[in-house]
Specification:
The protein is mostly helical. Helices cover 60% and strands 8% of the residues. The strands form 2 sheets. A 3-stranded antiparallel beta sheet has the order 3-5-4. Helix 1 packs across helix 5, helix 2 crosses helix 5 and helix 3 crosses helix 4. The longest helix is centred in the N-terminal third of the chain and has 24 residues. It is elongated, with a radius of gyration of 20 Å. The model has no long low-confidence stretch (mean pLDDT 92).
């Protein structure tokens, strides 16, 4: 079922104050635009911070989290789960392996479908980055009550569910 929301809820129209030449998405009223802008800026900021402090990028951090949550994940599984291109996942795993942070769960297995696990060093780095990640998340949500955070998280979860339905179309 498609939501019965009017297009004008998300659009900005041409006007005589220097606005757009044609109707287009509003930067301030379109949730998808705001979500993209927020995610992009947060990820860019996190990538710089994690690179400076820990020598890893945002994609590497995502894979540390993925393998802490689901040891023995494959690149294909991680790609489906977090919605990132499999090639980017594979590059992150190669970087993490070169740093001694992840290893194949079964080294005799071929590269295709290889399962990955964190090393002791990977687990330790995960713990250090996690503390920073939690602080950054709290700073992002400054001014929100715990109830608002729960509600916001619920809204985002519903959006993810709707994306799953779109992918099935």
């Amino acid at each position: 079922m498609t939501a019965d929301l009017p297009d004008d809820l998300f659009l900005i129209h041409p006007d005589d104050t220097g606005g757009p030449a044609t109707p287009t998405l509003s930067f301030s009223r379109s949730p998808t635009v705001l979500l993209n802008f927020t995610a992009n800026r947060f990820t860019r900021s996190a990538a710089r911070a994690y690179q400076d402090r820990f020598g890893i990028g945002a994609m590497d951090w995502r894979m540390l989290v993925m393998l802490a949550r689901e040891p023995r994940s494959t690149a294909a599984h991680a790609s489906r789960k977090i919605g990132i291109d499999k090639a980017a996942i594979s590059r992150a795993l190669a970087r993490l392996e070169a740093k001694g942070l992840v290893v194949p769960a079964n080294p005799d297995q071929g590269r295709l479908g290889r399962e990955w696990v964190l090393t002791e060093e990977g687990i330790a780095l995960h713990g250090r980055v996690l503390a920073e990640a939690l602080n950054r998340q709290k700073a992002l949500l400054d001014g929100f009550t715990p109830e608002e955070v729960a509600q916001f998280t619920g809204f985002l979860s519903r959006c993810l569910g709707n994306l799953d339905k779109l992918a099935g179309d």
